[in-house]
Amino acid sequence: GQNIDQPTEMTATEGAIVQINCTYQTSGFNGLFWYQQHAGEAPTFLSYNVLDGLEEKGRFSSFLSRSKGYSYLLLKELQMKDSASYLCAVPGGSYIPTFGRGTSLIVHP
Amino acid sequence: GAVVSQHPSRVICKSGTSVKIECRSLDFQATTMFWYRQFPKQSLMLMATSNEGSKATYEQGVEKDKFLINHASLTLSTLTVTSAHPEDSSFYICSARDPLAGRRVPNEQFFGPGTRLTVL
Question: CA angle A57-B44-B69, nearest 5°?
Answer without folding.
Answer: 120
